[in-house]
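User: Can you help me understand a structure? I only have the sequence.
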Amino acid sequence: MSESEHRMIEILRVLSKQDKPTGSKLIADELKEKGFNLGERAVRYHMQILDEKGYTEKKGYSGRVITDLGLEKLEKGLIYDQVDFIYSKFEEMIYLTDFTYMTQQGNVVVNTSTLYNEESINIMEEIFRSGLCVSPYVNINKDKNTGEIEVTTICGTTIDGVLLNDGILTQPQYGGLLKIENNKPIKFTELISYKKTSITPLDAFANSNLTSVLDVITKGSGVVPANFRLLPGIAREKTIKILNELNKIGINGVIGISEEGKDLLGLPVPDGMVGIAIIGGITPFCAVKELGEDINLKIAEKIQDFNSLKPITSNIFSPLEAPINQKQEKISLVSSKSMNLIQQVNFDIEKQKGDIIANISYLHRNDLDTALDIMEQAYNNNPKYINRYYNLVEHPENENLIGIATICSLSIDGILINNGIMSNPTYSGLLELTEPPLFIDMISYNGTTLDPHKIFLSKNMTSITGTSPNKVLASVKEIPYISRDYAVELLEILNNIGFSIYKIGKPRELVYNSKVENYNFGVVTGGGLNLIGAIKEKGIDIQVKALEKLMPYEKMERL
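Assistant: Let's start by predicting it. Here is the structure, written out as C-alpha cells:
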C-alpha cells in the first residue's frame, strides 16, 4: 500500500466514526493525533479522490460522509488492524456485559445468525436439548417476506463478562475443535489464537467437514467447537461458585476447569493460572451445517437484553462427562510443523535441483483429466498469480485416488535460509486482486494448528476461477532489512525459475496491506494450493492437504 493510499484509508477511518458530515479541518486534526501531518489543503485533495472513487460523498458545505462502498474499502484496507481487532472486539463485548445472575437482569453477548430453512430450527432444538450449548435461551424471528429466520443465541463470551463484573479477569486464548470419545472430552485437536487472526476462530472452524456435532449426539463421539481461556488460580473457587449459579438459570456450557497450573484437554496452563474450556456458542449452528443447510453466522455480534430471550426447550440433559485430567500429546502450531520441513529444503538455485516442500491433495482418478484442464485454464487466465508446477502422486493405500502435488510457498523460506538469509513466514492470507492487490483476511502461522489456506478453502472463500476481482491464496514472509540486497537477488531468480513471488516490499512498507515489523521488509508469495482451490471451485471432490512432504523439484511438471 502506498503512503497516499494509507492516508486515504486513515481518512475513511476518521469518517467512519462520525455520525454527521465532517469537514477537512476536523479530519486534519484527527490525523495529526495519529501522526499524519496533513494540512486541510492536503486533506481536501485526498477527499476529492475519495469522492471520485465513490468512497465518500459531499454533503453541501457541511463536509463529507463515508459511503457503503467506503466502509467496504475500509474493512479490506485495514486488514492489518483487523488481525488485532478480533481480540479487542471480544474485550469490548466482555466489558459491555452487565448481566447479573442474582436478578437475571442485564445485557448478554449474543450470536446472531440467519437460517433459510424452517427445518433447521428443529435440528437446533435437538442440539439445545442435548446440552451442547452455552444456553437454551434464544430469540427467533422469521421475515414473512423473505422467509429468512434470524436466530439469536447466547455467546460464551457472556460468561467472561459475568466473571469480570465479579472482579475476575479471564484471558480468551483459543477457539478450536474438541475431540469427544464415548461422551468424554479428550483433547483439543485444532486451535486458532484470538490474537492472531482476522477471522473469529470458531467461525473458521464452523464447517461441515471439520465438526461432527450430530455424531456426538447420536454416537457419543465426534468433534465440537469449543473455547479455551485462562484466569488467576486464586479465583478458582469463586469462579466455580459463579458458574454453578449461572448453571441454575440456564447459562453454562462449561466443559472443564483445570487445577491450578495443570494442563486441560491437551493445552498447557501456566503456573498460578487455571484453564477453562467452554462449548462454542455456535455448536447448534454447526449441527445444521453438517446437514448441508446454509447459514450466515455472526459470532459475538452484539449485546442484547437477556429478557428478550426465551428458552427453546426446558428438557435439557448433559451428554458429556467431566474431562479426565491426564497428560495429552502436545498440540503443534503450524509454525512448529513448518519449521521442521523448512529445515529439510535443499533446493540448489544454480542447479535447479533438490527437495522442496509439496502439498499433496487427493481426488478420484476418474476426475483427473477434468482437474488438469481446470488447472491449465486457471493458470492461463492468471499466470502472474497461479503457479504452474505440479506432479501426480499415487495414493499410498487407495488405488482409486490420485494425488496432485503442488509447490508449497514455505519452500522459499527454506531456500533463503540455506543461503544464509533469515526468512520468517508470518501470515497466510486471502489476497483480493484489486489494484493494488489487498489482503482481506489473514491468519498467523504462529497462532493456528491448521494450515490457514486450508481454512479459506474449506469455507469457499477463494475466487480463483471466478469473475474479477479474483481472490487467491498468498503468504507473507518477513526478512531482516540488512540482508535485503542479497534476498532480492535470490527472490528474483526464484521468480524466474517458477516460484511465485508477488511482491518484495520496502522497510516499514505495508505489503499488500500487511504490516511488517520494524527493521524488516515483507515478501508476498503465492499460495501453493491455488491450483487445488481452482479444482474445488468447480465442484470436484478433492481432499485438500498442506505441508505434506518433501519432493525433488526436478520431478515437478509444468502446465
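Now, to help you interpret it: Residues 79-96 form the longest helix (18 residues). The radius of gyration is 25 Å. Let me know which part you'd like to focus on.
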